[in-house]
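User: Just a sanity check before I run the rest of the batch. Below are the structure tokens for the first item. I only need the designed sequence back.
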């Protein structure tokens, strides 16, 4: 069988059809926005020991679809797990606990959902910033810079208003208290 080279016009037509095929099914969902996430109030209280630390933040979803926080990593810890506290008991959070509903939020706070940084590479000190990667089912991987605060720090209304935004289509964003970027 003899092969013939494709003309430039045929290549452009084929590429156009391939891109159109990836554009969705033309249904009613095409107008919906995906996850449009914003992280605010991210911080790590200075840990008391050199082996474990906690992290807190708020993830808000202004999009029309829910998203789920699948995992968290950080170069400061061998393991970062997502826990929840119920009464006096701490347990790993299931996937239903890690969902950020459309037009809703997921709050990580003392006495509730929180991040546990285990097997620390070094004990973070107040004033340092810890880089944390959040992996979402829809939004992908997002890097948040988490400032280390005093061990007794508690966010106030004014610090809770500072935030960072990212969405499935943005490349990066930052703020003074925490920053995040989508990769």
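Assistant: Here's the designed sequence for the first item:
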């Amino acid at each position: 069988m003899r092969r013939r080279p494709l003309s430039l016009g045929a290549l452009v037509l084929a590429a156009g059809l391939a891109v159109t095929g990836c554009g969705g099914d033309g249904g009613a969902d095409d107008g919906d926005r995906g996850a449009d996430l914003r992280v605010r109030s991210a911080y790590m209280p200075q840990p008391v020991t050199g082996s474990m630390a906690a992290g807190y933040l708020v993830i808000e979803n202004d999009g029309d679809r829910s998203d789920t926080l699948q995992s968290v990593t950080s170069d400061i810890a061998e393991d970062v797990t997502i826990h929840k506290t119920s009464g006096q008991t701490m347990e790993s959070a299931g996937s239903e606990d890690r969902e950020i509903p459309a037009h809703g939020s997921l709050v990580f706070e003392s006495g509730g959902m929180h991040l546990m940084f285990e097997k620390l590479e070094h004990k973070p000190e107040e004033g340092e910033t810890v880089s944390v990667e959040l992996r979402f089912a829809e939004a992908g991987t997002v890097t948040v810079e988490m400032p280390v605060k005093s061990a007794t720090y508690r966010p106030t209304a004014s610090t809770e208003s500072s935030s960072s935004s990212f969405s499935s289509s943005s490349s990066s964003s930052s703020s003074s208290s925490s920053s995040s970027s989508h990769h």
